[in-house]
Amino acid sequence: MALKAVHVSDVPHLDQVPGNAALSVRSPQFSKCVNEDENEKCGYKFPKFVVIGHRGSGMNMLQSSDGRMKSIKENSIRSFNNAASFPIDFIEFDVQVTKDDCPVIFHDNFILSGDKGAIVEKRVAEITLDEFLSFGPQMEPENMGKSLFRKTKDGRIFEWKVEKDDPLCTLQEAFQKVNHSVGFNIELKFDDQIVYKEEELTHILQVILRVVFEHAKGRPIIFSSFQPDAALLVRKLQGTYPVFFLTNGGSEIYSDVRRNSLDEAINLCLAGGLQGIVSEVRAIFRNPGAVARIKESKLALTTYGQLNNVPEVVYMQHLMGVEGVIVDLVQEITEAVSDLTGPTKEGKEEKNFFEEEGMVEVKTRPQFSKDELSFLMKLIPELIQP
């Protein structure tokens, strides 16, 4: 279903923010703030290779035989703080707005519960905050919440059972309860099947921005979205925090052509003043030349996808110039990244593939054996097959 184009030039800036709002990004996680000079190409770059915890400590795959994918409830305060206990830079999570205008953290468009043997689906955007928080574990242990189920992409339904459960939460709670050492990568979540009117998108984004400006208190923030118009609008509505466009790079085809390739993603970012791209990792390996074009456009580049849970895949991206990865296996990948980018026993140094303003960042390369390198070079093409 086609998405209605939004005329961002007609949208007003968010003109009322609390007095304690952070007016610039002053953190080691950021090497440059948003550039408000519209006549100058806006650059943005992470000062180092970053690891971002997907939905905190990783998404829940209830159908998986891997217990790690069902360890901690995704998109929960518990999951966020567990991820923050490792040397990560950001946590990524999904934000939607309830019927009564409260930004909540939940990935799926619909929330499922059991009722007298039947599964009941309700759209998150069409229920109130109180109803949303009534699902799953409750803050008061003596209270019993509604059961939670989840539907997979192939239509199977599983009871949402994890080893370490936790209540659903709001965006405000995340700011108040999550360790301040980690930044927030806030994905602005919208339903692909809905054609949003301009005023609907604007209202939703302003509700989210008010919470961010009131509670961020200097915490590094990145906005991202698969919805092109939402990404353009949030960039238009505020200039404090960078905005990245999410794309699967052509793995799926949409009626909105802006979503169908990395080149279209570059064009969207340059036209709308966005600061970066978050690509599905397979798109990068299928089209490695796009990395150079993204760099030439002074855009940041990070990736997402299950292949990012493979250390060798992460290292290949590091060499290619990708600046960060969104991962589920936070402990394993943070340990691997430390090993991959830290000094070797021999202390030999090797220049990495990304440069800025003539300054070359020097990293050290792990000492793979010939057999390991051969395996690695054969592994990537096999993994990126559709």
Give me the secondary-structure topology.
Elements: E1 50-54, H1 77-84, E2 90-97, E3 103-105, E4 110-115, E5 118-123, H2 129-133, E6 149-151, E7 157-159, E8 169-170, H3 171-177, E9 183-188, H4 198-215, E10 221-225, H5 228-237, E11 243-247, H6 262-272, E12 276-280, H7 281-286, H8 289-296, E13 300-304, H9 311-320, E14 324-327, H10 330-341, E15 350-356, E16 359-363, H11 370-383
Parallel strand pairs: 1-2, 1-14, 2-9, 9-10, 10-11, 11-12, 12-13, 13-14
Antiparallel strand pairs: 2-3, 3-8, 4-5, 6-7, 15-16
Q: What can you see in these coordinates?
A:
It is globular, with a radius of gyration of 21 Å. The protein has helices spanning 77-84, 129-133, 171-177, 198-215, 228-237, 262-272, 281-286, 289-296, 311-320, 330-341, 370-383; strands at residues 50-54, 90-97, 103-105, 110-115, 118-123, 149-151, 157-159, 169-170, 183-188, 221-225, 243-247, 276-280, 300-304, 324-327, 350-356, 359-363. The strands form four sheets. The protein has an eight-stranded parallel barrel with strand order 1-2-9-10-11-12-13-14, surrounded by seven helices. Strands 4-5 form a two-stranded antiparallel sheet. The protein has a two-stranded antiparallel sheet with strand order 6-7. The protein has 386 residues and is α/β, with parallel strands linked by helices.
